[in-house]
Specification:
313 residues; mainly alpha; Tetracycline Repressor, domain 2; 14 helices
């Protein structure tokens, strides 16, 4: 335990952990009545959308054995944006009576009264309707895969009330597009593709656990659960284990799919990135954990580069 600061020391100011920023592009560019809806589906914070889309794009490259079609890139990108927005809207609807007690979420539109529950539900149904139109752009196998995703997206926000492992359900839903990339491109899902998907699920359990440590004190107060609460002071060990499993599964996936050497070179860089995260990770520094969470976009980009090098060279 560190000693208290002396009179000559200046304590580190507490970081503002709110995930709402009132001076961003939503405030500057959108009509005032649109802003709360943009924030409800997290258009103001696209990190989650990128973390949904990037592994899906990597799977599209693998399934196409090179460059996917522009049409498929467009459909899957729009699908990732919409499904992430639906998940966030559902999350805020279910958590509207809890979010005001959590520092990071206290200014979200529903809990702060910027949007009524009825209007949030109308917005949710509108997002589902647009998603339904995308079903006409994919094959029958993928349509059934998309339908199977809906209950996963709906149940995730409730998981934190009865299990310490909501991140597993989140990872399954977030990365479902990787399986659909194969079903739509190849009309089948090989074992190697499933391994890549499981690796992405475990990767998300790891990085979202880092994110969960930001809220752990508030979560204890309001009575919801997370992997951060399950791991407690052993978080670095647990998250390292998930990252090692991710690396092993992605290594197997590349070997089974016959990827060229470039894939494995970049995969080694992804492994180094995971090691760096664990070296920097600090249970007591939520501001640093925010940064580490966002840094996983770099790992997602590297995964796309790896698949391109592995299939095109």
């Amino acid at each position: 335990m560190q000693p208290p600061p002396s009179d000559q020391q200046t304590p580190r100011p507490l970081p503002d952990l709110s995930d709402m920023r009132h001076d961003d592009w939503v405030e500057r560019w959108l009509p005032r009545s649109w802003g709360p809806y943009a924030r409800l589906c997290r258009l103001d914070r696209p990190v989650g959308t990128w973390l949904t889309l990037l592994p899906c794009l990597a799977a599209l490259v693998q399934a196409a054995e090179g460059w996917p079609t522009l049409w498929r890139l467009f459909i899957f990108s729009l699908g990732a944006l919409l499904m992430r927005g639906i998940g966030c809207t559902l999350n805020d609807i279910f958590d509207r009576d809890l979010d005001h007690q959590v520092e990071r979420t206290r200014f979200r539109p529903l809990t702060s009264g910027q949007i009524t529950l009825r209007n949030a539900l109308y917005f949710l149904f509108g997002q589902f309707a647009v998603c339904a139109l995308l079903l006409f752009a994919i094959n029958e196998y993928s349509r059934w895969m998309a339908v199977a995703l809906v209950p996963i997206v709906i149940i995730y926000p409730l998981c934190k009330r009865f299990t310490y492992w909501p991140q597993i359900v989140l990872g399954i839903g977030f990365n479902w597009g990787m399986l659909m990339a194969w079903s739509d491109t190849q009309n089948h899902i090989p074992l190697a593709a499933v391994a890549m998907w499981v690796g992405a699920v475990l990767w998300q359990v790891g990085y979202d656990s880092i994110y969960a440590y930001v809220d752990v004190r508030d979560d204890l107060k309001v009575g919801v659960k997370s992997t951060a609460m399950r791991f407690a002071e052993h978080g670095k060990l647990w998250i390292s284990g998930f990252y090692v499993a991710t690396f092993a599964l992605w290594l197997y996936g590349g070997l089974a799919l016959g990827h060229h050497a470039g894939y494995f070179v970049v995969l080694a860089l992804i492994g180094a990135h995971f090691v760096w995260q664990m070296m920097v990770f600090d249970l007591a520094r939520p501001d640093r954990n925010f940064m580490l969470f966002r840094s996983n976009m770099t790992a997602g980009v590297m995964l796309i580069v790896a698949t391109l090098l592995g299939t095109l060279l």
